[in-house]
């Protein structure tokens, strides 16, 4: 898989610092806020719908809601067992949510795959998870695309070939995922969105190698004072993944 100059920890990466309009994840306890209805996703036992511009987090929380509030028919206790396991996996997946359309780890996709196993169990819930993972993959690709453009605009050199290779591989995985969805193989599509997300993170790793954190002080000048004085100095930090700087500075 393409990963020239990249980081082996690409499956634990997040978004670049400069991404704008990042939505805030709604609290997991406030799931009634997901009651925006317009786009039906239903089967014989579940009827869930969301607005057309719903985020990855919206779809994820809706899937958890559907699992919590729906009764499933299956022999013996198998339905209850599958329901408990799926809820456990999806609740754990929330640990990897960074914001509305971004995740910190490929482990989130693994949790989704486990939650949607077997594929015949709650297929509409699986569709919600696939929609969530689709958003995550597309956002990661867009992040890498945007950062590459930003660095070019700043005349910063980077390994264009490695970035292009990884982004091409990411888009190819998205294409495979969508073909699986067309054939009704939602469960398999999750794995391909995971591949797409990892390649996008590897592209970001390559871009990260070409730049270092940059701090621009925006405080205009020292205020007039005699002797020692303490005051806040304000500035802006540019880095591919500023959230990592915040974590490492604690």
TrEMBL record:
Highest rank taxon of the organism: Archaea
Ranges of biased composition (kind: Polar residues): 21-35
Residue span of region Disordered: 1-36
The name this protein goes by in its record: Uncharacterized protein
